[in-house]
């Protein structure tokens, strides 16, 4: 498992001298209900417990034991898990592997990002219980991000074919790859048809096509292993092209940093309106359009006293209009949100790689006090969220479950029940009155639910993917699915 930043932070706090407070303890217990999170937790605690023994004999090392305040509910589960962990650790390699990795090798590798993907035959990952695991990914277009349990992050650009061989390696049959290897995961290896790359603590790139492979180093150092030759070291900013069968099979080339996608690009673009009147906004969305598809532009207000009116949303490629949605929408506070989703469909005959830009005409929404108070500055700030996938095709079953997000230091969980009801939890405590009497429904991929305190007002939600919930009408960050054990 790749632990979430939240889980890592809570365990770090637990191991620190101050320990955890009541709210943090409750949240950690909630996270540890997931088996993968519990496995990570017990491994960390087992390592912590064995640290003193490992340090014995090292001159100058303190031997003072560390007192850890374990969450009460988690302690019982963790104790049982630690017994299994310890038995596996000390009873030999074969048995240890059967205990520590009771699942298939590929299940330690999660698909943590997808964008514009068109899958090849038998190349799609497995989607189960809200999580996505991968043994092989083969796809024609788009980007796929894989994260190993060690923290290694692999970003692939299609067309590509990559297989997970074990917890510390993979095989790139074709395509572009960028691997980020964090401290502690050195030795990560990527094989290709005519050689392999061994990491020595770095970020490196590969482009494999036919009998040729290009290998470059963004940061750190790698070893390139070729048939019948000793390992060759490559350092930061160095790159080579390898083609077996030529007299000079290696050729040094400049590292082309622009050729590779190093991280999954953001789908969110900030916009700001600070004066009255009409103007056109432009957003470069080239990195988000990888194939013909149904794209959606969501304009979400985040702060400021003014709402904005949105018109004439147009998607252009190299300056030429490809798709447009000319309806009028409004985005502002919860009471001033309507029709703020715009459909921009790119047909197969209209798709080419190029510079794709989104153009939109906006103006400030009339204010009640506009005539009497002209001194108050116009202020409206928000996000354009450019989406593709479940945002337009989600059904009611895709929304059912619990979704977690943070706002102003508090942790919230919304639960959409199959019968249409909604539950809200704040820092682990249920707020029964929050959505009493409200029922949710889904139409055209958008979930609508009434707000009891404001008759006639509805919240709107969409899905970026199976595990990401977008607040279309609230100034909150995206929520993530809470996966049950």
From TrEMBL:
FecR protein domain mapped to chain residues: 145-223
Superkingdom of the source species: Bacteria
InterPro entries from the UniProt entry: FecR (IPR006860), Ferrdict_sens_TM (IPR012373)
Pfam families per UniProt: FecR
Entry protein name: FecR family protein
Source organism (scientific name): Luteolibacter flavescens
């Amino acid at each position: 498992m790749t632990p979430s930043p939240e889980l890592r932070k809570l365990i770090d706090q637990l191991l620190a001298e101050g320990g955890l407070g009541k709210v943090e303890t409750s949240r950690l217990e909630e996270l540890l209900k997931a088996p993968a999170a519990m496995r990570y937790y017990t491994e960390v605690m087992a390592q912590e417990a064995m640290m003193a023994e490992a340090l014995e004999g090292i001159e100058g090392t303190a031997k003072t034991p560390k007192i850890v305040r374990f969450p009460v509910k988690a302690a019982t589960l963790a104790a049982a898990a630690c017994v299994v962990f310890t038995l596996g650790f000390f009873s030999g390699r074969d048995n240890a592997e059967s205990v520590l990795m009771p699942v298939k090798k590929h299940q330690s590798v999660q698909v943590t990002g997808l964008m514009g993907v068109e899958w090849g035959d038998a190349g799609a990952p497995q989607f189960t219980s809200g999580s996505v695991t991968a043994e092989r990914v083969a796809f024609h277009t788009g980007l796929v991000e894989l994260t190993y349990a060690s923290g290694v992050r692999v970003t692939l650009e299609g067309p590509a074919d990559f297989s997970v061989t074990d917890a510390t390696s993979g095989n790139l049959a074709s395509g572009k790859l960028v691997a980020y290897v964090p401290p502690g995961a050195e030795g990560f290896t990527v094989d290709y048809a005519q050689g392999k790359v061994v990491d020595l603590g770095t970020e490196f790139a590969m482009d494999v096509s036919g009998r040729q492979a290009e290998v470059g180093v963004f940061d750190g150092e790698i070893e390139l292993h070729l048939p019948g030759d000793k390992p060759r070291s490559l350092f930061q900013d160095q790159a080579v092209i390898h083609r077996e069968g030529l007299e000079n099979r290696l050729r040094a080339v400049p590292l082309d940093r622009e050729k590779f996608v190093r991280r999954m690009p953001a789908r969110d673009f900030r916009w700001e309106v600070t004066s009255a009147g009409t103007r056109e906004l432009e957003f470069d969305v080239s990195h988000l359009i990888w194939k013909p598809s149904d794209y959606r532009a969501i304009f979400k207000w985040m702060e400021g006293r003014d709402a904005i009116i949105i018109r004439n949303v147009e998607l252009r490629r190299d300056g030429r209009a490809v798709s447009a949605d000319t309806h009028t929408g409004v985005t502002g506070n919860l009471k001033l949100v309507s029709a703020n989703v715009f459909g921009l469909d790119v047909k197969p005959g209209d798709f080419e790689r190029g510079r794709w830009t989104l153009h939109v005409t906006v103006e400030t929404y009339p204010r009640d006090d506009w005539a009497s108070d002209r001194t108050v500055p116009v202020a409206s700030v928000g996000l354009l969220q450019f989406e593709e996938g479940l945002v337009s095709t989600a059904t009611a079953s895709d929304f059912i479950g619990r979704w977690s997000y943070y706002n102003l230091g508090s942790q919230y969980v919304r639960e959409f029940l199959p019968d249409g009801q909604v539950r809200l939890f704040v820092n682990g405590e249920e707020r029964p009155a929050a959505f009493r009497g409200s029922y949710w429904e889904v139409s055209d991929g958008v979930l609508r639910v009434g707000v009891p305190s404001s008759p006639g007002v509805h919240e709107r939600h969409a899905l970026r993917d199976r595990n990401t919930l977008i607040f279309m009408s609230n100034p909150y960050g995206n929520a993530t699915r809470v996966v049950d054990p």
